[in-house]
Specification:
This protein is of the alpha+beta class and 152 residues long. Strands 1, 2, 3, 4, 5, 6, 7 and 8 form an eight-stranded antiparallel sheet that branches. The longest helix is centred in the C-terminal third of the chain and has 18 residues. The protein is globular, with a radius of gyration of 16 Å. The two termini are 17 Å apart.
Length: 152
């Protein structure tokens, strides 16, 4: 993807990587595992992956590191995800254009419709983290082929 990026866009690519988890990431994943609102597959993800940074895919795509998810949870709490305010989720990343990705307790992943997390409007983008990551993979593959990421 980055080999043709500068020729296509006229400027060099930014950071585009999937970073493997290190010691600090493992410690943060263990701390997240202690929180009852964290889906098990998210903890498993963070045991292997430190973060995802794709600055050049569409507006960008960012899956935050576990320590950032934990810090946001400690500072701001969960995101209320329903009219009845009984469903809660964790912000796990963003699309670089102001929209956030939220993991619900049941494992489904949602994207906000606006940049605000106050009473957010959400679209379910995947039934679980695995399907969400597959969606990201398809977006990356499409972007590498034709420069269009689809709707992240």
């Amino acid at each position: 993807m980055t080999a043709e990026f500068e020729r296509r866009h006229g400027f060099p690519p930014g950071t585009n990587q999937v970073r493997s988890a290190g010691h600090d990431d493992h410690a943060a994943a263990r701390a997240l595992a202690q929180v009852s609102l964290v889906p098990a597959d998210l903890v498993t993800f963070y045991e292997s992956i430190g973060d995802i940074t794709w600055e050049d895919i569409g507006n960008g795509c960012f899956i935050d590191q576990a320590s950032d998810v934990l810090l946001r949870l400690q500072e701001y709490g969960t995101v209320d995800m329903g009219a009845n305010q009984r469903a809660h989720g964790l912000v796990i990343g963003s699309n670089g254009g102001g929209l956030s990705y939220i993991a619900g307790l049941g494992g489904a992943v949602y994207r906000t419709r606006t940049a605000s997390l106050d009473d957010p409007e959400l679209d379910r983008v995947a039934d679980d983290l695995r399907r969400f990551l597959e969606l990201l993979e398809r977006s990356l593959t499409r972007f590498a082929a034709d420069g269009e990421p689809g709707y992240l």
